[in-house]
Amino acid sequence: MIKLLPVAMLFFATGCVPFVGHRQSISDDPIRFYDLTTGSDIPQVLIIPRYSDSEGVRFGEPFVYRNGSRFPLSAPVSAGVLLATTYVGELKSVDGFAVFAKGYVAKWGDYGEEVGKYDPEIKKSPIRRRVGLSPASDVESQSIEWFSKAVEQHEINLDKKHAALFGFGIPYQVKNGISPSGICLIKEWARR
What we know:
- The chain is of the alpha+beta class and 192 residues long.
- The chain is 19% helix and 36% strand.
- The chain starts with a helix and ends with a helix.
């Protein structure tokens, strides 16, 4: 304890306050994905998360989500040091995710908007987070096929159409943080 005192005094004398870290709060409550036309459940969907950090925006590891199970998306940890009024370190966050289901229009799920809202009409249900997907025409359901080819690149250039799918209003370039096994999962999903 006495050896830590000089270190602590140095921090306070220089205005440096250590910042241990921060993890964004993400609920693992189940999400119900359902058909907007019929109201029936969609048994499983492919989720591709999007993250932001000090180096920009990147895609994370995709996973298959089974309706009604715990939502397994975890938040990255941010860590750094506060020097007077300047933060030095890396801030990381989950921006949201793209949802793909065969025969449905792909959709962006933002934690601050639709997916984070609880539906008051189904207050008594154990699954209170819901996302409805619209049935797709053949052209509308081709987003996963396009993404399965684009994901082989280190950086993915999203045109206006595909940028909207990932929560952007304009064309955007995103780093690819998806592992080879994640790429295989996306390609397998596209072949369904």
